[in-house]
């Protein structure tokens, strides 16, 4: 519940940090902005993730470490503040 509440009241700083993180770590494969195709066709565009999964539910996967995804996806395990930043950015893409 706290994760949901925190993501709902994200600051501009969190959104910016999340955008910076995904730009540095995810944009090689995923479309991380509001437009454009993913460089790796099987990697979903981040702007569409909320249509498949509630963004808040992705926090647990980020905390446990994403070990599956597309076949070439590296394993990630994020710190709590990084998770909140990424969730804030993903939520901003829903608007």
Write a compact overview of the structure shown.
By secondary structure, this protein is mainly alpha-helical. The chain has one domain (2-92): Cytochrome c-like domain (Cytochrome Bc1 Complex, Chain D, domain 2, Orthogonal Bundle). It has 5 helices and no strands.
CATH topology: Cytochrome Bc1 Complex, Chain D, domain 2
Count of individual domains: 1
The helix/strand order is HHHHH
Radius of gyration: 12 Å
Number of helices: 5
The N- to C-terminal Cα distance equals: 22 Å
How much strand?
under 5%
The major beta sheet can be summarized as: none
The class by helix and strand makeup works out as mainly alpha
The CATH superfamily turns out to be Cytochrome c-like domain
> Which overall shape is indicated by the principal axes computed on the Cα atoms?
globular
Assembly form of the protein: single chain
Give an account of the 3D structure.
The protein has 95 residues and is mostly helical. It has a single domain, classed as Cytochrome Bc1 Complex, Chain D, domain 2 (Orthogonal Bundle), CATH 1.10.760.10. It has 5 helices and no strands. The protein is globular and about 30 Å long. The chain starts with a helix and ends with a helix. The model is unreliable at 1-7 (pLDDT under 50).
Key terms:
single chain, about 100 residues, mainly alpha, Cytochrome Bc1 Complex, Chain D, domain 2, 5 helices, disordered N terminus
Q: Secondary-structure map with pairings?
A:
Layout: H1 2-8, H2 12-25, H3 49-52, H4 58-64, H5 80-92
Helix pairs in contact: 1-5, 2-5, 4-5
């Amino acid at each position: 519940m706290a994760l949901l509440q925190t993501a709902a009241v994200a600051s501009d700083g969190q959104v910016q940090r999340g955008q910076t993180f995904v730009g540095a770590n995810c944009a090689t494969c995923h479309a991380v902005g509001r437009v454009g195709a993913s460089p790796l066709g099987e990697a979903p565009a981040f702007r569409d993730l909320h249509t498949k999964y509630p963004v808040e539910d992705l926090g647990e996967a980020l905390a446990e470490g994403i070990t599956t995804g597309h076949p070439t996806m590296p394993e990630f395990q994020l710190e709590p503040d990084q998770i909140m930043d990424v969730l804030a950015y993903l939520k901003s893409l829903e608007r």
